[in-house]
Amino acid sequence: MTFTPLSKEKRIWATLFPMKADRDLEFKLRVLKVVERLPQDAKRAERLNQVAGELWRSVLKCPVKPFRVKETPCFLVPEEKAGLADGYSFIGPANREYHLKLTDETINVDLSESKLDHRDIVCDMLVRSFSDKFMRLQDKFWRWHWTLFYKNRSENSDNANRLVDAFRGIKFSVVWLDDLGLHLAADIRTKYMGRKSLREHLESGDTKFIKDHLKTEKKGKADPGSLFIRDNEIVKYSCLYAGQAGEPAEKATFIDTDGRTRTVYEYYLDRFKIRLPPNDLVVYVKSSEHGDPIPAPSSRLFPAFDTEQIKKMHESLRAPIPPSPQIPPQKRVEMITEFLHDVRKVRFGDAMLTLEPEPISERQQYFIPPDLLFGK
Hints:
By secondary structure, the chain is of the alpha+beta class. It has helices spanning 44-60, 79-82, 119-135, 198-204, 264-272, 307-317, 329-340; strands at 2-3, 11-13, 16-21, 26-34, 65-69, 72-78, 89-91, 97-110, 141-145, 148-151, 164-177, 181-194, 228-231, 236-248, 253-255, 261-263, 281-286, 294-297, 301-303, 345-348, 351-355, 361-363. It folds into two domains: 26-110, 2-Layer Sandwich (Alpha-Beta Plaits), CATH 3.30.70; 139-317, no CATH class. The chain contains seven helices and 22 strands. The strands form five sheets. Strands 9-10-11-12-3-21-20 form a seven-stranded antiparallel β-sheet. Strands 5-6-4-8-7 form a five-stranded antiparallel β-sheet, with helices on both faces. A five-stranded antiparallel β-sheet has the order 18-17-14-13-19, with no helix packed on it.
């Protein structure tokens, strides 16, 4: 992207922010393996990510990456912290207890080398460090997934007549550039979420603009404008409507990932500290077209809209148009820099990494074609 900064010199800017470490990043990653055999079902990856999150937040206070060695589920952690997790136990399927065992297997990493082996593993673990930093700022951001966070306050929150909230977010990854080292790559995302919940739509009978959302059979890949957003406050997920459960949250039950039977009401109170309203109708949702239906309270489901749907709503109801997803290049860089202000320093093992305040840039160059001489 190109824009003119305060000076008159034009530069080409890439939204890549260099990282500087306070020490040479040479260390070892140790392998922790799960002793007992975990079921190889559709929820295996989700369970391993949950365990990695628990290890990270409660025990090691450092990045943990789910890994696989010859089909055995494992975790990679910085060696200096690995001993703290030896013997760690967690509850898994069928309410069984599973244990982690420290192995002798290690991966050596030297980030000072111009060519980096295992770069994908290291970059992925570093991403988790930035994700953790964003997660600690729950008063400012909510998580869509581990590499995408949105502001709690929508861009159009000052407009009392809005029908849709427009949230600005930052999508990021860690990349290794040969001869340049580690960089954080980032860009801006915009998500549109209706202000009325599914419960409000159903109780009022006003479903004109969510007919596509309420279709239980969709051909092909679901459009963004046919999804619901399951709003758990600090974390939000996209999902597909799969029908009504016919019971309120106090009575509707399901089997949690730890094997326990719980009511939807109990789950939201325990997991998210959200007290659902009385007689909150429960519906079924799926994470994807082929996913398993799970119960969700209708008061926490909000329709996602695309720009075409928003245009139709504006034409029909004269509703205010929310901010556009198109952002001028200079403004885009400024917004990314603002997002990163609170996460410029992260810890990885014993090292502290700091993001440079400005993205990398190069002076804009022009190609001047030679004079064309005809008839010569």
